[in-house]
Amino acid sequence: MTTAAEPAASRREASPVLAFLGRRIVGAAVALLAASLVIFAGTVLLPGDAASVVLGRNGTPAQVEKLNHQLHLDKSATHEYTDWLRGFVHGDLGNSAVGMAQGAKSAPIWPLISDPVKNSLILALVTALFMIPLSLGLGALAAVYAGRAVDHAVSIASLAAIALPEFVIGSLLVGVFFVWLDLLPPVALIPPGDSPLDHPTKLVLPVATLLLASLAAGIRMVRAGMVEVLQTEYVQTARLNGLRERWVLWRYAMRNALAPSVQVLAQNLQWLIGGIIITENVFAYPGIGSTLVTAVGNRDVTVVQSVAMMIAVVYIGLNLLADFIVMLLVPRLREPA
Amino acid sequence: MRSLFRFLRIRSGAVGLAIVLLVVAVAFFGRYIAPHDPNAPVGVPLAGPSSTAHLGTDFLGRDVLSRLLYGGRSVIGLALAATVLAYALGLAIGLIAGYSRSKIDPILMRTIDVMLAFPPLLFLLVLITGAGTGVGILIIGVAAIQAPSISRIVRTATLEVSVRGYVEAAVARGERAFAVVVREVLPNILAPVLVDAGLRFTYSILIIASVNYLGLGLQPPASDWALMISENREYISLNIWAVLAPAAMIALLTIGVNLMGDAIARSLGRSYVPRTTRSVPA
Fold first, then answer.
1. Burial of A78 by CB count in 10 Å (0-12 exposed, 13-18 middle, 19+ buried)?
2. FRET partner for A254 with CA separation of 20 to 30 A, picked from A51, A207, B14, B207?
3. CB contact under 8 A, B274 and A301
4. Distance, C-alpha A135 to centroid of its chain
C-alpha cells in the first residue's frame, strides 16, 4: 500500500481548503495592489497637477507650490504613491485637497467621510436584506412555473428592470410615489448625526430603486440554475419516492441551485456599489456615493483616492467572500483537482 | 452572419428592433421637426404643457419637447463611439494574445483579470478626477471598461480558429502573421464576438447616461436626455414631464436593445444574462 508517491499526495490532500483560500487571498491582494495603482495613477499622473487644478485659474505659482507641499505632492510619483498607500493601510487618510486649498491648516478626510460611510453601509445592508430572499424566492418561483404565466411575468418584468439605469428607475418612482400618490418623500436628506434607520420612510425609495435595478440578474440566474436542477435524476427520484414537492424543492433542488446563485448574488452586491453611488445622488442621500461624486466634481484628489480605495476594498473583498461561500456549499471543490 | 438576423422570428426581438428604430429616428431626425430652439427660453420656467410647449418648460423656461428631440443624439452617439472603440481595443488585444503563443498572452490575460476586478463606475470617476470632465475621456473610459471582457472572448475564439486547416495553410504559404490574422482569423471569429454587441451597447448607454446624470460628463447647456433628468429632478413636482419624458426615452431605448439582445441570444441557443456579463456592473 505504501508507495513513494503517497506522502506527497496526502500532503496535497491535507488542506485543499487552505490551499484554495490561500490562492484566492493572494489573488485578491494582487487585485487590491493593482487597484491602488490605478486609483493613484488615474487621479495624479494625468495632465495637470492636483494643486493647480484644485486652486483653479486664480492660484498663484506660490500658492500651488505651498499646497503641493502641504499635501506631500512635491515628491517623486513613486514616493508619493508609497506614502499614500502606507497611510491608507494604517488608517491615516491625509487631508482634503479642497479643504487645504481653502486655507484650512488641516482638513482631515476621515471626519468628512465617517458618517457617509455608515449611512451607505446601512443603505447597502437594508437592500441586501431584501435582495437575497427576493431573488432566491422569485427565481425559484419562475423556475417551478417555467413556461407558464408566472414565469413570463417575472421574466419580462426583470428584463425591463435590468435595462433601466438607476437614475431613471429612481425618477420614475419619485414621479409615482411623490408627485402622483404623495406617499413618500422625494429626497432622503438625513440630518447630520441621525441614523437613516430613524427615518424609515426616507429609505423606502432608495432601497426600492436599488432592488428594482439589481434583482433581475439574480432572479434570472436562480431561475436558470433551478430549471436545470429540477430536471436532474436525483430530483426525479426524490419525487418518485413520493416526497412532498416543497420538500424536494427546498431540500434537494435549492442547495444545488444555490452555488452558482451565490456568485451571482456576490456580483449583485458588487454591482450594488455602483448602484449606490448613483442612487444616493438621485435622492441626495448623505452617503459615500454622494461624497465621492461631489469630490470628483471639485476634483478633490485626496478624498477621491481614499473613498475609491475603500470602495475597491469592499468590492474585491466581496469577491473573496463569494468564492469562500461557494466552496462551503459545493464539497466537490474542496477536493484536489 | 445571416444567423444573427434569425432573432427577428422571435416576437420580442422584432418588437425590440421596432422600438430601437423609433428611438434612433427621434434621436437623429427629431431635431428637424423641433418647434423651438432647444436653448432659448419660450416661457416661464417649469410651466405645464401648453399649446406653445407641448411638454411644458424646464427649469430655465426652455421647451422640453424641443430639448427632447435634440437630446437623443448624444446618448446614442457617445455610446456607439465607446462601444466601437471598445471592440477595436478588444479585438487588437484578444488577437495578439490568442495568436502570439508567446509570453505576451499570459501577461495580457493576467492584466485583464486585474482590470475586471475593478469597479467600472469607480474607474470612470477616478479618470474624470484626473482628467476633468469631457466627452473624450468619457468615451475612452467606457471603452477601457469594456475592452477587457471583449478581448477575452476574442482570444478564446482566436485560439480555436488558429488551429484550423485554412489558417495553417496560410501560415505554410509563408504569409505574414498580420495578413493571416486579418484575412483568415478575423472574418471567422466575428460572429461569436459580435453576438453580445447589443448587450455591450446597452451597457455603454447605461453608464454614459449615468455619468451625464451625475453632472460629470456633458456640461450644460447641452441637450441630453440624462442631463435633462438631473437638471429638472429637483423640480419634479412642478413640471413632471421635464423628468418623465427623457426618462421614458432612455427606458424605451435600453429596453428595446435588451429585447433584441435577448432574442438574438435565444435564436443562437444561448442564455442571455445581462449585467452580469458586465465585467461590470457599474
1. exposed
2. A207
3. no
4. 17
Distance of CA A66 to the CA centre of its chain: 37
pLDDT per residue rounded down to tens, chain B (282 residues): 556 677 788 888 899 999 999 999 999 999 999 999 999 999 899 999 998 899 999 999 999 999 999 999 999 999 999 999 999 999 999 999 998 878 888 888 888 888 887 888 999 999 998 888 889 999 999 999 999 999 999 999 999 888 888 988 998 898 888 999 988 899 888 877 887 788 888 889 999 999 999 999 999 999 999 999 999 998 998 999 999 999 999 999 988 988 887 787 777 766 554 443 333 333
Neighbours of A25 (CB within 10 A): 13
Torsion over CA: B151, B154, B160, B166 (sign): negative
Task: Collect all residues with Cβ–Cβ distance below 8 Å to A92 and sequence separation of at least 6.
Answer: none
Establish if B237 touches chain A: CB-CB under 8 angstroms: yes
CA pair distance B44, B273, nearest whole angstrom: 46
B268 neighbors B3 (Cβ within 8 angstroms): yes
Query: What is the dihedral sign for C-alpha A147, A151, A152, A156?
Result: negative
Q: What is the 3-state secondary structure of B179-223?
A: HHHHHHHHHHHHHHHHCCHHHHHHHHHHHHHHHHHCCCCCCCCCC
CB contact under 8 Å between B250 and A38, yes or no, is: no
Residue from the list A30, A48, A308 with its beta carbon closest to the beta carbon of B122: A308
Nearest 10 degrees: Cα torsion B86, B87, B90, B94:
180
Q: Among candidates B95, B93, B75, which has minimal Cα distance to B142? A: B75
Q: Taking the CA atoms of chain A, what radius of gyration do you get in angstroms?
A: 25
How far apart, in whole angstroms, are the C-alpha atoms of residue B262 and residue B209? 22
- Grid cell in block for residue A170: 429612481
Contact A277 B125 (CB under 8 A): yes
- Would you say the C-alpha torsion A224, A227, A229, A233 has a positive or negative sign? negative
Looking at the DSSP assignment, which residues form a beta bridge with residue B41? B62
Of B117, B226, B275, the CB nearest to A271: B275
